[in-house]
Amino acid sequence: MKLVKSLLLGSAAGLVAVAGASAADLGVKKPTAVEYVKTCPTYGAGFFVVPGTTSCLKLVGRVRADYILDNPRIRANNHNRFRVRGYVGFDHRTATEYGLLRTYVRAFFQRENAADSTTLEYAFIQFGGLTAGRVTPAFEHGWNQFYIFSGQGGYGYHSDISYTNSLGYTANFGGGFSATITIDDGRERRVAAAGHAMPDITASLGLTQSWGSLKLSGAIGQIRAANPAVDTKYAYAVEAAAKINLDMLTKGSNLWLAAGFAQGSASYNGFAGTFTIGNFTGTITDATVVGTSLKLSTSYALMGALQVYATPTVAVSIGGTYAVHNPTGANNSLRTASVIGQVAWMPVAGFLIGAEGAYRTIGFDAGAAVAATSGNSKNDFVGRLRFQRDF
After folding, report:
1. CB neighbours (10 Å) of residue 217?
2. Residue 270's domain is classified under what CATH number?
3. Residue 22 forms part of a structural domain
4. Is residue 302 part of a domain?
C-alpha cells in the first residue's frame, strides 16, 4: 500500500513538473495590471487623463434641431424651415509652469433647406493669458440667451458675429476684474472696398462679482475705398453692459442691459449687410464715398432682457431692442425695434427644449436705402422651437 501511494505521489509531482516546463516552453506571460482611465477633477466633469501623458482631454458634442417660423416677403420664400446641426469637438488641457496650455476645437455639420454645410465655430490655443485662433469676439458680453437674434444682422441686437479669427491677451487682476486686448480680422464684420490693410483692434474691461457683472468694450478699424484718391477713415464702436443677478427672486434669475454706439462699424450694433422685416429690405452701409472723402455712417442700439427661473428647470425670458442706423445724407435714418419672449425647459442636465417668438418692426425716413418687394407691412412675427442636447 505504501508503495502504491509513493508511486502515485511521484507521478503527480512529475506531471506538475512537466506542465510547468510546457508552460515555460510555450512562452505564457504573467497577466499584467489593467490600466484604468483616470479622471481630471481639476478641470470639471468629463475630463480624463490621456494615457501616457499629464494632459487631460474632454470630448464635446451637441445635437440641435430647430423648427423655424418665418414671415416671407414673397411667395417663393419658405414660411417654415427645418435646421439640424451636429457638433463635434474636444478640449485638451495641460498644466505648465507658465500657466494652462489649452487647445479647443468645435465645428458643426448642418442640414437646412435640403442643403448641407460645415462651419468651424472654434479653433484656438490658450497659453496663460494669450489666445490665438477662432473665438467669440472679446467685444461681446455673452449674455444673450435668445435664439433668433444670435449671429443675425439687421435687427440692432448686439454685435452681429458669433466668431472671429483673433489674437489677444487677457490679464486677470483678481477680485473678478479683467482686461482683454485683441486684434481681429476686420473682414469678419465688413466687406472692404479696398484690400484689408489693418485688423480691428478691440479692448474690453470686465468685472464679475456675486451681485453680477459689468463690461465695457471698444473697437477701432480701418475703412479704405478702392479709389486711391479717396481718403482713408477709421471706424470705431463702444458698448457698455451690465448684468444683475436676481437670486432674491429665484436662483439663476437675472437682468441684463447694454447700450452701444458705432461710427463706420454698424455690425458692432447688430446691423450688417441686408435684412428684411415685413415686406421691406434694408441695406446697411458703413461708409459712402462723397467726392474724394469717405463719410462714415453712425448707429446706436439699446437692448436688454429679463430672465426668471419659474422652477429650477424652467426659465422664462422677455427682452427688447431699439436701434438706429444713419447713413450719409439727409433723411436717411433707419430704425428697428423688437420684443421677444422665450420659455426654456431643461428636464435633465444637458438637454433643453425651448420656444420663442419675436415681434419686429422697421421705420425709415424718405431717403433711407429701404425697398418694398410686395405689400407695405413694416412689421412681422418670427418664431423658433429648439431641441438641444449637449454632451
Report:
1. 24
2. 2.40.160.10
3. no
4. yes
Q: Are 213 and 255 in contact (CB under 8 A)?
A: no
The 10s digit of each residue's pLDDT in 80-111 is: 889 999 999 999 999 999 899 999 999 999 99
Domain count across the chain: 1
pLDDT value at residue 135? 96
Task: Name, in order, each residue with C-beta under 8 angstroms of 381's C-beta and a sequence gap of 6 or more.
Answer: 69, 71, 357, 358, 359, 360
Specify the pTM. 0.83
Looking at the domain assignment, is residue 24 inside a domain?
no
Residue 14 in domain: no
Q: Which three cell numbers stand for residue 327?
A: 447713413
Tell me which residue range forms the domain holding 247. Answer: 46-390
